[in-house]
Specification:
Helix content: 55-70%
Number of domains: 3
Largest sheet: 6 strands, antiparallel
Oligomer: single chain
Structural class: alpha+beta
Mean pLDDT: 88
Low-confidence stretches: none
Length: 628
């Protein structure tokens, strides 16, 4: 479990004529991670000859599906003997669909034209003038749109002219529209300062009558549009489910036809390479030989450590799934590298508990996490983090009991609030009053975790570079020797190590300089900084305790047996619980983020490389079809 699943490289050589069947079998077996086959004196193969026929139909089928409103899919899965024939049969309906879509599009455009015309006439709708009669050899007509204040000025300016006619109306927006008749040849530019000059529409009657005709035409067009939409909906009802199934089947066939681009080829042969779990190599070989006999040759190929990078498949208990998700979310380990999933499945809850450390908050967080698990999508980031919160609530409750923290109260104080006396147990530590002990505890935890990181780093490097492995062990020796040297000479602890600890420290520094050079020695203070980073656990935890105690001091509701007292008690209790709930949620985020940071930055930095290629077998996922 601390190592990714062992992989083997499998090579198959088959006749080109059976390649579609070989690919289909591998696709359905879903155990082979195909890789680019690099075989000397061969060329990269292209897609299968069927690819163009499949992809062209797939594009048209998708176009049909996207043009339809989403419909229901069949509960029973489709089986297609010949997917190309099924696709051609469906595409024969494409012309009918295009006619319906064209009808809908044309009617929609006509409706938009009618609406645009109505909007254009909206400002002059209240002018009771038949615009078809505005024809004169001696007059010209101007439409002016003005604000309420400028309209009066415009009237005054026009009234100073000798020959004029003027009528006006209000728009829906509160402006005014003026229709002004002036003698031809008279300059109307003076009106521009009073508003916007509008073009004179060409109408056959009054604007209101014209708008009425437009609305009537729009209504008829909407009836036509509804009829077109109903026809399209009926088309979708008849064909949508099968379209989805054909699209899925064509997509699968397209993947199969294109995957051959990863093969090497000669005139008559394909060379196929892929990664298979070591325990399943025999299954793959026997199945291919059973199906194709002499037409295929399958063998296990030697792994080239310099050029081959097998993909990584992690195998952990189901309960560790959320932690494996976090590891893969950050970066999958390289093949042969230690899988840190179970390690962080232990350390994240422990660090979370040391920060969170409140029994009642832990109970709250358990139920909050359970609720978030139920409402979030399975496999999502929130879903997996909520599962980590749920798991971490258990050690957080245990830590809360040990610290005797119950929403900022000790259990004695909490009982006293309800009129009860007595103590059931003695707290192992109170984080506010025992800060020094808490700091020592988190430093010890940090030292242990970082020490494990160095040990794992040595194991990871052992088969690649003994020099780097010795360097990791030297860092482990520096950490152990330095820790106990400080304990002996600064705190008078472990006196029996007063000679061994300094010797281990000096020898380890010497080995580090031999393996990493003098530069390595300059990085030793950084190790102390890494360990001291764990003090953030104490700082954040103590801050949470102080905040909870402040809430209790300021907001704890007081009960008085009067109508007003009961009302204030209910309001106060609601506020008290709400503030504690918010404080709990904030503590959940802080505890997870700080704990995760220590694991990723301080712990992973000592051994973890990542950037592994995730094992992704060539597999088929069918929702609407079945293999014939």
């Amino acid at each position: 479990m601390l190592q990714p699943v062992r992989m083997s490289k499998v090579r198959a050589i088959c006749l080109k004529q059976i390649a579609p069947s070989v690919i289909k079998l591998l696709h359905n077996m879903a155990v082979v991670h195909l890789k680019d086959a690099a075989v000397p004196e061969t060329e990269r193969a292209g897609p299968l000859s069927s690819y163009d026929d499949i992809s062209s139909r797939l594009i048209r089928i998708r176009s049909m599906k996207e043009a339809l409103p989403k419909g229901n899919v069949a509960k029973k899965k489709y089986e297609f003997e010949s997917i190309l024939s099924e696709a051609d049969g469906m595409l024969s309906e494409d012309d009918k669909l295009r006619v319906l879509l064209k009808q809908k599009e044309d009617v929609s455009k006509e409706i938009e034209v009618k609406l645009a015309a109505q909007r254009a006439l909206a400002d002059i709708a209240e002018l009771s003038i038949d615009f078809s009669k505005l024809q004169s050899e001696s007059l010209h007509f101007i439409l002016l749109k003005s604000g309420a204040d400028k309209a009066a000025k415009a009237r005054a300016a026009v009234s100073k002219r000798k020959n004029f006619a003027l009528t006006s109306a209000h728009t829906q927006a509160g402006a005014s529209v003026l229709l002004i008749a002036l003698p031809k040849g008279e300059d109307a530019k003076f009106l521009e300062e009073f508003g916007q000059m509008m073009p004179l529409p060409s109408l056959s009657s009054t604007p209101k009558h014209e708008i009425g005709q437009l609305k009537s035409a729009e209504k008829e067009l909407r009836v036509e549009l509804k009829a077109a939409q109903e026809k399209i909906a009926k088309f979708s009802e008849r064909h949508y489910a099968k379209l989805v199934a054909i699209e899925e089947s064509l997509s699968i066939e397209a993947d199969r036809a294109q995957v051959s681009t990863m093969f090497s080829g000669s005139d008559s042969l394909y060379f196929i390479e892929g990664w298979v779990e070591k325990t399943k190599v025999g299954e793959v070989e026997s199945e291919l030989q059973r199906k194709f006999g002499r037409r295929i040759m399958v063998s296990e190929a030697k792994i080239d450590e310099h050029h081959d990078m097998p993909p990584t498949l992690l195998s952990n208990p189901r309960a560790a799934g959320p932690f494996q998700f976090i590891v893969e979310f950050l970066s999958s380990p390289q093949y042969g590298e230690i899988d840190p999933t179970l390690l962080i499945a232990f350390f994240i809850p422990i660090l979370y508990a040391l920060i969170f450390g409140d029994a009642i908050y832990a109970i709250f967080s358990f139920f909050i996490a359970t609720y978030l698990i139920r409402i979030s999508k399975s496999g999502s980031l929130l879903n997996n983090i909520s599962k980590i919160w749920q798991i971490s609530a258990i050690p957080a409750f245990i830590a809360g009991v040990a610290f005797d923290e119950w929403s900022g109260f000790t259990h004695q104080h909490l009982l006293a609030k309800f009129g009860l006396q007595g103590a059931f147990y003695q707290a192992a530590m109170h984080r506010v009053s025992d800060v020094q002990t808490l700091m020592l505890l988190v430093i010890v935890v940090g030292s242990i975790q970082i020490g494990i990181g160095f040990l794992l780093g040595a194991i990871n490097e052992w088969n690649h570079s003994k020099k780097h492995a010795y360097a990791k062990l030297a860092w482990l020796g520096i950490e152990i020797g330095g820790f106990f040297s400080v304990a002996v000479f600064m705190f008078s602890a472990f006196p029996f190590l007063s000679l061994a600890a300094p010797i281990l420290l000096l020898v380890s520094i010497g080995v580090l300089i031999m393996t990493e050079g003098i530069i390595g020695a300059f990085e030793i203070p950084g190790l102390a900084s890494n360990i001291m980073s764990y003090i953030r656990i104490a700082a954040v935890g103590v801050g949470g305790v102080i905040l909870a105690e402040a809430v209790n001091e300021l907001l704890f509701p007081k009960f008085e047996l009067t109508p007003v007292g009961i009302l204030f008690f209910i309001i106060g209790a609601a506020v008290f619980l709400a503030v504690h709930m918010v404080s709990c949620i904030i503590a959940m985020f802080e505890s997870f983020i700080h704990g995760a940071r220590l694991n990723v930055v301080e712990f992973f930095g000592k051994f973890y490389k990542g950037n592994g290629l995730k094992f992704s077998p060539f597999t088929v996922r069918r929702l609407y079809t079945e293999e014939t």
